[in-house]
């Protein structure tokens, strides 16, 4: 009997509710992807992605789509870390994220880390399309291996477009079988946690934050258009989160999100 991986998708659509808040007319998921609305604050709607089963495993294909309409505010997080594990099906798993934010819309995409367990093989693709005037905070955190184990094979690609123009398109491959040098001084330098923040705000068009280092393992880099990238490496996930939180606090001083 042939064992096939799981196919699952989740969709989130956020729109103004006409009363100063944000409605979620579409909030649906399949199998291991279970989006749940939680208590928000002000005009912001909050959604938590809850893992209903283990995964992604070898051969699985997951997809999450989020669409934010003009004037809506959405915060998406996850209840726990996502752990890529080996499965009965050979071949890599795929996890696809598709995000669209209209002009005047705002999204905070802040999931918990992705952990690449030994023997796993996962490729993550994230595509973000923002209209002019949209706002975004997107965080990605990847931890290579659990405590005391080597990582699996992990590939990721993040593409961000603002008003139809590409401001970021980067790819990273780590673990067994990845191109040589991924663990060397030019890439991770022996660290086992890597992450980034992408922050897009209209205010950055006129007041773009300056490029700067944040300690030894992180940097703020202005991108083309009203966007900034924070890249960081750390010894573990806890230290990585601390660095990214500090970077976001600095950017909030330059141009805070609406309502903050």
Automatic annotation (TrEMBL):
GO terms for molecular function: nickel cation binding. Keywords: Chaperone, Cytoplasm, Nickel insertion. It is found in: Cytoplasm. Pfam families: UreD. InterPro entries: UreD (IPR002669). Required for maturation of urease via the functional incorporation of the urease nickel metallocenter. This is Urease accessory protein UreD. The lineage of its organism: Bacteria, Bacillati, Actinomycetota, Actinomycetes, Kitasatosporales. The gene is ureD.
